[in-house]
Design goal:
- It is a single chain.
- By secondary structure, the chain is of the alpha/beta class.
- 57% of the residues lie in helices and 8% in strands.
- It starts with a helix and ends in a 15-residue tail after the last strand.
């Protein structure tokens, strides 16, 4: 079985490597239905690059400010990979790819032990060909790593329901600690599964209460030190961002949504659209799973709890995001493979053929909502212009005006960037008060930055951050004329702008900048006060 596990994991890894090495960072959709981009990959990858170059492994930093919205395990693992292998999209994504591939191997093992090797192949094949799994686990984002830790924790309990062996106890507790250090509160859900399993599973197929306490204590003991450290080192920022914004704001509040659907309509429609084959096979296996639960099958009880808790948590969490269901996808694949009567016996070969045909069809139609994308490219249209600019090797700060790039520019070896966008800052309940810190400015403040920098630097010190780097990360303006004013005020900065700004800003830039057309819809204003390059030494094409 170990040889089969390794074979399946290697095949899964090959599929993920092929995609991860060819798709640009932040270059795919997290939610292809709503066309929601992968800005989070830029956040975590930026922190990882900084760790690889400067250290500070316990405290993620994004564009000069603390990034304490999530614990640091993903960024630290990606940063370590980038330090060893060099900064590249594949190196940054590699830790998550390996974890996801091992998880696919464990799903195969579960299905094979539960029913037959054919059922294991079906379960693994359905998981590998799932659009959500395929895309999210090949990005440098927390959801894929979290799901892999869920699989490891559940497999430990499946293989040893009593948690008597050292390896099963260590795997379960270590996986839960890893999940906590990946995504905080959601990482605790396997402990909830363990507690309910102890209540609902047959008496002779469940751990002693003392083993449950030991497993939970070990997991908390391994996961808690980072939270204690951040409370001691950056307590004000940590409580504001991690607790008040991330957990209470987006979890318990009424945050702004990407869709006006109800939770039920949002999640059910996307699951059906993203993988109709998996959904049909899983639904057709529900009756068999329920029968096994009624027969008091410990494995069936465990699988049902694994399905139920992440799904319930996604519905309970106020912000809607299809990525929240990713931890349940491996359980759905096991359900469809191990409990579907078509995945064993005489029909098994036909079911494996169907799973293989579904994979080929998805790969052949990557633009479909349920398709699998292996080709090169990116969904971020501005990334090529930004990478081309980076290759000029200029040491000037770059100001990006009304450029939607999922923060891709923050990943490039540029000396400094500022985002200028039209409108007003988002509601204060769902972000920190970045305006008072100077991280978010209005156009007048940015134009008079020399005056405001000492003021905002002092405020940042009060928050425990002794740096001026994050000042003016985002600038909100009200008109094209304000952008023209910024160009006059910052003659030593370069600007990347949409073509619609040309007529308004050309006169303001004439005395200080050279106008360079780089595409039909974008142009550069290059300062005539060219500064020597002072950026990093990694690729401009991530």
């Amino acid at each position: 079985m170990r040889a089969a596990f390794c074979t399946v994991a290697l095949v899964a890894l090959a599929c993920l490597l092929l995609r991860a090495g060819r798709v640009g960072l932040a270059g795919d959709y997290v939610d292809p239905v709503a066309k929601l981009g992968a800005q989070d990959e830029s956040l975590y990858a930026h922190s990882a690059i900084r760790m690889a170059r400067q250290g500070e492994w316990l405290t993620p930093i994004f564009m000069g400010r603390f990034g304490l919205y999530k614990p640091p395990l993903l960024a630290a693992a990606a940063g370590l990979s980038a330090r060893i292998l060099g900064i590249s999209r594949l190196a940054l994504r590699l830790p998550g790819l390996i974890a996801a591939a091992l998880a696919v191997g464990l799903v195969f093992w579960w299905g094979a032990e539960q029913r037959s090797w054919q059922a294991g192949v079906c379960a693994a094949g359905l998981l590998v060909s799932n659009h959500l799994w395929h895309s999210l686990t090949s990005m440098c984002i927390t959801d894929g790593l979290l799901a892999a830790f869920y699989v490891a924790a559940m497999f430990a309990l499946f293989a040893d329901p009593w948690l008597e062996s050292t390896w099963s106890l260590g795997l379960f507790s270590g996986a839960v600690a890893g999940a906590i250090l990946t995504k905080s509160i959601p990482g605790l859900l396997p402990l909830g599964v363990l507690g309910l399993y102890w209540i609902l599973a047959p008496r002779n197929q469940r751990p002693r209460f003392g083993r449950i306490v030991l497993a939970g204590t070990l997991a908390i003991a391994l996961g808690a030190p980072w939270f204690v450290y951040q409370l001691a080192a950056h307590g004000r920022w940590f409580l504001a961002e991690h607790l008040n914004v991330e957990i209470l704001g987006f979890g318990a509040g009424q945050p702004p949504q990407t869709s006006q659907e109800s939770h039920l309509a949002f999640y059910t429609s996307r699951m059906a659209l993203l993988d109709p084959v998996l959904m049909v096979l899983a639904v057709s296996a529900l009756f068999a799973l329920w029968q096994a639960v009624r027969r008091r099958s410990a494995a069936a009880v465990l699988l049902l709890l694994w399905l139920a808790l992440p799904t319930a948590a996604a519905f309970k969490w106020q912000y809607r995001n299809i990525a929240y269901l990713l931890p349940a996808i491996p359980a759905i694949a096991i359900l469809a493979g191990a409990y579907n009567p078509l995945c064993s016996g005489r029909s098994a070969k036909w079911m494996m053929t169907l799973v293989a045909a579904a994979f080929v069809a998805k790969a052949a139609m990557p633009q479909a909502t349920w398709g699998l994308w292996f080709g090169p490219g990116t969904k971020v249209e501005a990334s090529r212009a930004e990478s081309d600019y980076c290759q000029r090797g200029r040491g000037n700060e770059l100001v990006l005006v009304d450029i939607e790039d999922e923060m891709y520019a923050s990943l490039l070896p540029l000396p400094g960037i500022h985002y200028v966008m039209r409108g007003t800052p988002p509601p204060g309940d769902y972000r920190m008060d970045f305006s008072s810190m100077g991280i978010i400015l209005d156009a007048q403040q940015f134009a008079d930055l020399d005056h405001w920098t000492p003021i905002f630097r002092q405020r940042l010190r009060e928050w425990g951050l002794d740096s001026s780097v994050p000042i003016g990360t985002v600038v909100f303006n009200q008109s094209m004329e304000e952008v023209a004013m910024l160009i006059r005020a910052r003659p030593d900065s370069d600007f990347l702008l949409p073509e619609r700004y040309r007529a308004v800003v050309a006169a303001s830039a004439a005395a200080s900048h050279d106008l360079v057309t780089i595409s039909p819809d974008r142009f550069l204003l290059l300062s005539r006060q060219a500064l020597p390059a002072a950026g990093g030494n990694w690729s401009c094409r991530l």
